[in-house]
Amino acid sequence: MESQASNMSLDFRKFKNIIKRGKWIIILITLLSTIAGVKFSINSGEVTYFTDETIIIGQENDATNNQNLIKTYIEIAKSNSVAQKASAKLNGSVSAIEIEKAITVNIQLNTSLLKITTSWPDKKLTLNIINAVSDSFMEEAYRLYPNGKTQIMDYAKEPKATVNKFNLRNTGISFLLGLIASMSILFLMNYMDTTIKNEDNIEQELGLPVIGNIQKYKVG
To answer: Which of 83, 86, 127, 210 could be joined to 132 by an S-S link, Cβ 3.0–4.6 Å?
Structure first.
């Protein structure tokens, strides 16, 4: 029991010394991680504009058959082909990848109404994107299904603004990740360091108590 208590005491002192020696590493990495989290949270509070457009798929008396095709039309609207065409209509000001991320496509339950929604930080560009996507979708749908019918029911209106709230959770997670990362780096550095620095290292490595030490003095 006494040996166990002694080992625990040594482990605690070793842990304390590691933290003491590397406190600036912990402070720096944790601080940088927290700052990144704050910046990300502030950016998440930026204004985003959104608008949508509703498209009718097929004939009025063909609603049942449309349900069988609706998933296909959704995939067409979300496809890279539509995004590429929309990007070209915008003269490349927004890339196809950005367009794919900016739009969401949904079908209204038990209807043949396809809704395309666009969100973007710029008000004017939000409207331009949805118009380009809508036109490109109509073209691509006609190319794939020449005998099908698609028509716009509700055109996109003036984009509305929404503000994402400051996300305190991101900051807290960033702080914890920074703390964990800094501690991990510190203990890894200590594990790789095989030099003996103090009496505790000697006792731990050799299993022998230190009776005394010789002090170093400067002469003159």
So the answer is: 86
